[in-house]
Amino acid sequence: MDKFYKKIQTYLMKKSQECGELKFLTSCITAENNIHIEDICESLNNIFKNYDVPIEEKASVNDEKCTQSYKYLLLNTNFENQERLAEDIVSGHLVDMCPPLSPYLFIQILWNLEYEKILIESLLYMPLDLCIEIINIITKCIDRLDPFQRSIECIFQLIPTIYTKFLHLKEFSIQSKNVEESIQNLLMSFEEFLLLLTNPKLPYLIEVSGLKKYERYGIILKKLIYTTKKCLETRNEKMLISTDLEKLYSITFGKEEHVKCENTLIENTMSTLNQQIMDLLLSKIKEVDCNIYLSWAELNDQENNMISLQRSIGIECYYFIDFLSNDKEFSKNAHLIECLQQLSSKSDPKQSSFILDLSELCSAISNGKKELMKELLSRYKEWDRTILNFIYDNRSLLEKEDCLTLLEYLTFILQQSTEEDFKEFTYDLIMKVLSFQSISDIYEIIMMYLTKFDGKSYLESPNTDAAFHEFVMRNTSLQNFTNLKTILLFLLKNPKMVLTVLLKITIGHPHYGNIMISPNDLLLLSPFMQIRESDNQVLLTSTLRIICIENIEWNAKKFMNLVNVMLDNSVIEVHDLINNVYIPYLREDTFNISNINVVLNSIHKLQVKCTKNTNIKDLIIILARRMSFLRKNTNIDKYTSSEIFSRITRILSYFLENENFSVSLKREIVNGIGSIIEPIDKLYFASLWHLMQKGISIIDIIEDYERRCFVVLNKLKEESKASQKLRYYLSNLSLLREDFLRHLIIRSTEEEYQRLGSELTIIYWFVFGWNDEIDAFDNFLRLTMEACCLSLEYSTIGGNNLFVYLFKSFTRFCRIFVSLEGMENQKKVCQLLIKNINQLNESIKHSPYVNLFTIHLTHFDGHTEDNDFVNFLQDILNTFQHFADECFEYNKCNEHSEETCKISHSLNVSNFYIIHEVISACMKVSPTEAYECIRIMDEVFTSN
Predict the structure, then answer these.
(1) Of 864, 765, 863, 874, whose CA–CA distance to 814 is shortest?
(2) What is the distance between the alpha carbons of residues 521 and 561, in angstroms, rounded to a whole number?
(3) Is the pLDDT of residue 895 over 80?
(4) CA distance 113 to 107
(5) Where are the alpha helices (DSSP H) in 868-906?
(6) Which of these, 315, 421, 791, 846, is most buried using a 10 Å CB contact count?
(7) Helix, strand or coil for residue 514?
(8) Is the dihedral of CA 818, 823, 824, 825 positive or negative?
(9) How confident is residue 900, by pLDDT bands cut at 50, 70 and 90?
(10) 700, β-bridge pairs
(11) What is the DSSP letter of 579?
(12) Where are the domains of the chain?
């Protein structure tokens, strides 16, 4: 936790310097404030994840990491009582460890972490004065809590918590500078909080996707009736604080005096409090009209879908009336009772179950009235251990839907109860009930449950992960009923984890190298894979995406088998696979050669099946980013990067040639790739850039080089932040077109090199000031050999294989050039080849290829007077080819060897290197991002 605290501290100090003191971020009124608050929330969210502090659905009120993290934020919030918190004996040292947050920002962070339950639970274990401050800020911020269910759950968890806080005042002494004033302030704060439920303009009451107004109203009213009854029932109970939770949450004002409240004051306060709650309930009931009431009959109750929302509200009203009528004090509220009776469900004269208490219901079921089991199940909020044991003993009466109700009840208990023993007892008993069902029923029950709860792992226990791994390592056959039943029960607890493991086994993930599951066997679980999570993605795609992004190599053949089986059996659609697995994977910075080849091959095979639902735009942009990555990354073997590059361009060619893009979509793609790709990449996007032009030429590419580099360099010359050495160099730098050509040669694939050479020597030779095709050929060879020298003396520009790659490309281009029709001056070509190959003499001396070079390429000078230049030319080219092949084989055999010789750099090549790095730095940013170039170029000049 110390490292976690330090990380939070460092981040908040940095953010405080960036946007001013955080204690002044008290609202989201301005766009700037809103951006800062969103950034802080998102950044803290990531820090929590990085340090394995549970957040969102994994957050728990009794998790020590959660509570410690929460307290750290609390103690560093600018509350009026913050100084008093510094006196706390256990946690006071954490106060002021980092720039204080505003209370508003504190709450926004907790909303983002989904820590509202932890926040509310903590109110019971903190000083009263601080509790009041927090209630006030929650009241102001509740409208920022989305969606509807979270905001309503928060409200109806907070009401009984505040009520309990009042009850504690009866039993415990408190720390407060003015007890009477504090109690009055708490009462006023509570009253203001209750008014939230009467404000019809709040967003969570009027803007809820998927819920109509009358449904929202019914949910709120039902919860209000239940909560009011729950509060009033506890008013005379002797309140006990959970000792386990107190250890986690307790925070005090240190050694400040503890004061006991006067009984009369508390009694009067509780009387006022009770009346406030009942007045609120009365006002909400009076708002119910005939249309709202009748509409409830058409809706299922969310907590028990076997009955309507109307009946569910009626049941709550009935039991509340019964409670009020039997209480001497509350029975005086005749008007409230009268209004409740208008909504109360009437008992069926033919079936008296509704007026039975739970023990009578159990007795009736035992005496043969089996149909009453449904009624017992619908009243699960009243259950205790006795009722659970009764249900277990009568499990033979349960149907599939009844087991689903039990699972929903278990979810309710795990989320609401703080009694660990009862949660454990309920968990074990219900799992036993479920395991007694037939395999087909278990399958259906679990499917219904996971579908209803969007595949969330609400029922996961602490050892689920470890237990499943232990099981699956010994039992991988899904065809075995016992194994399948066990896997289904694990799926119930954590479907994502189970599917992740099974999918990893199926695709040959190295963590599970000794076990195997076939894709066809995995089809048994295909309905679970198609469950849609809360973000509307199916479990299969979200799980596959996680596996791919892990960047651990899996078996290519097995992965493709899985994908094909899932597609062939309609478990997944092509657009889902590409949009939600492949595109997010390609967007990551991770790079695994085998994995990326599998993904690109899969996209290539599926491209003909893409529909309008496939996100072609994002796919093109992300492939363009990968192209740029491959060109710029000098750590990847040139042959490997070229192979991957070829796969990418093959996919791009298909979509750019076959898709009928609208003008606006073309513009979006161009905007998306404009600052990513290098000039030569435009060869593949010609149809997007030049609507009236047949294609992109070498002239267009060089002009783009010039435009991008000169814009950046001109800005840097005037930039005061750049070092003096850099500015002096740039002021004297004059980049030539040959410099761009040399850079282009190094970055090109072999196919691009051939095209580049052909255009330079045959079509556009005159543009570069060359006399004719032969002169152009000579200059192109010279530039290529200069690039080869660069690769030999500075292996960092492209790895050990760059020289061999360039030399092979050069040799193949020469064969093409000499075979051109009309190419008759073989003698001149031979002389040019020998002259230019001799440029390598100095640079190759310290390379591992020096012996091969000496054997093969140093004996041509004496043969320039031969008459048979046709055969001599072929001998030269064959020798070049043989030399390149042997260099390639040498690299294969010495792939992991380390060169120990020190390379001396010639002056010319050193200058080429500096220019190459300057151009590369410009290519790393778009022309409008000159500031980033300062750092990159400063590194170049300080290291040379």
Answers:
(1) 874
(2) 12
(3) no
(4) 10
(5) 869-893
(6) 791
(7) coil
(8) negative
(9) very low
(10) none
(11) I
(12) 2-287, 438-572, 574-696, 700-923
User: How confident is residue 304, by pLDDT bands cut at 50, 70 and 90?
Assistant: low
**CA dist., res. 852 & res. 804, Å (int):** 12
* Encoded tokens for 409: 């009840």
* Angle subtended at Cα 184 by Cα 183 and Cα 188, rounded to the nearest 5 degrees: 120
- List Cα–Cα distances, 562 to 527, 532, 668, 849, 928, in angstroms: 16, 20, 34, 45, 45
Q: Would you say residue 866 has pLDDT above 70?
A: no
Provide the token pair at 84. Answer: 């008093």
pLDDT band at residue 529 using 50, 70 and 90 as cut-offs = very high
* pLDDT at residue number 937: 65
Distances (CA, A) of 188 to 143, 276, 553, 929: 20, 11, 61, 55
With H, G, I as helix, E, B as strand and everything else as coil, classify residue 538. strand
Are 919 and 739 contacting, i.e. CB atoms less than 8 angstroms apart? Answer: yes
Q: 586-590, 882-886, 935-939: which has the minimum mean pLDDT?
A: 935-939
Residue with tokens 């009076």: 286
Task: Look at residue 692 in the predicted model and tell me its pLDDT.
Answer: 41
β-bridge mates for residue 101, sequence order: 77
Q: Which residues, in sequence order, are CB contacts of 449 under 8 Å at separation 6+? A: 404, 407, 408, 492
Distance from the Cα of residue 843 to its chain's centroid? 48
Residues 6+ apart with CB under 8 A from 217: 287, 288, 292
Q: Contact at 8 Å (CB) between 508 and 552?
A: no
Structure-block tokens of residue 623: 């492939």
Q: Which residues contact 275 (CB under 8 A, 6 or more apart)?
A: none
pLDDT tens digit sequence for 478-490 = 888 888 999 999 9
| CA dist., res. 838 & res. 860, Å (int) | 10
Output the pLDDT for position 933. 60
Query: What's the confidence (pLDDT) of residue 690?
Result: 57
Identify residue 927 by its one-letter amino acid code.
P
- CA pair distance 371, 369, nearest whole angstrom: 5
How high is the pLDDT of residue 352?
44
Closest C-alpha among 132, 2, 16 to residue 72: 2
Categorize the per-residue pLDDT at 348 as very low, low, confident or very high, splitting at 50, 70 and 90.
very low
> CB 867: neighbour CB atoms within 10 A?
8
Question: Are the C-beta atoms of 264 and 180 separated by less than 8 Å?
Answer: no
This model's pTM is above 0.70: no
916, amino acid identity: H
Kindly tell me the sign of the dihedral angle through the C-alpha atoms of 798, 803, 805, 811.
positive
What size, in residues, is the chain?
944
Q: Is the pLDDT of residue 801 over 80?
A: yes
Average pLDDT score over the chain: 86
**Could you tell me the two tokens for 704?**
């783009």
Give me the pLDDT at residue 718, please.
77
